Amino acid sequence: MSATPAPPPSSALDEDPVFALHRGGKMAVRSTVKVDTAEQLSLAYTPGVARVCTAIAEDPSLADEYTWASRTVAVVTDGTAVLGLGDIGPTAALPVMEGKAILFKEFADIDAVPICLDTTDVDALVETVVRLAPSFGGINLEDISAPRCFEIEDRLRAALDIPVFHDDQHGTAIVALAALRNAARFTGRELSELRAVVAGAGASGIAVSRILIEAGIGDIAVADSKGMLHTDREDLNPVKAALALDSNAAGYTGSVEQALRGADVFIGLSGATVAESAIATMAEGAIVFALSNPTPEVAPAVAAQYARIVATGRSDFPNQINNVLAFPGIFRGAFDARATTVTEGMKLAAAEAIADVIGADELRADYIVPSPFDARVAPAVAAAVAEQARRDGVARR
To answer: How many angstroms separate the CA atoms of 228 and 299, rounded?
Structure first.
């Protein structure tokens, strides 16, 4: 077997440690078996492999045991909504997808393959992923712009009998719910007692709002760039219009700043800024999740003057709302149960498991969500998700 080719000679970019780390990519494929004798070659490849192929042809479920599919995720993007960089295309998105793939491996021992598709056409993207699906046990959609991402996920979930999970939506939502559960617990309240305002009605804003409604939030109002979502607006796409029907019981029609007066919770997922004066009008014991990266909607130090708990999406501030707390354990649990999909119940179970990693006596204003490096998280999430998959009737073992 030939050795892995050496990367090209160092360049001036490698003086930057970020570029130095990325040189040659961040991942590679490694064999799990030795093939250094004729006998091993005959077992791993022809003629022996033909027996395995024949058995799978007769019983396709055997692929779960005798191929890598049941422990491998496809990390799929079209490069239209990459981090905070926007539509930078599939080639430029590849470093992010490689990064996501190695997080699967590091945190849940799941193999993952980055797949960057050179199309933004919904039909072409769905068809491509469906055709690739036999090689994988799950599909992690990543960095696909809204509202296309909603249709793509829905169609893939309908077409495939393996977990399909858009992490920008559901990963963020699950961790945000876990953090808010603990923030409410720390401040002596129930979710049902809280009124929340969400700035941002893209993929993550919609998903966070939906999971909080499912979890029993008292009331929640959501804003896009034109103001609050409400049923009298005629400029809403179908996803926003559906959310307007299920939210904003108080009937806010103006700006985020107006809705924040007396609110218990602010969740920012918009990339915009929110005035300090608006945060100052929130209720006593307010909770502020300013999650836009790299620049939060309100500076944490400013928010802390008025809020009891502040969280961000950044690793250099306390209470980081980080998707890596969710997706490795969710796929690990789904794979362990051979789940055919990821249900709403499985998402709620994941959020509860993340929250419960921190004991009641450990909670602090600056510690409402575990560290991504807390080794308890992924196993706890995996166990909860697998158990819920069996309860929901979507497990095959």
So the answer is: 23
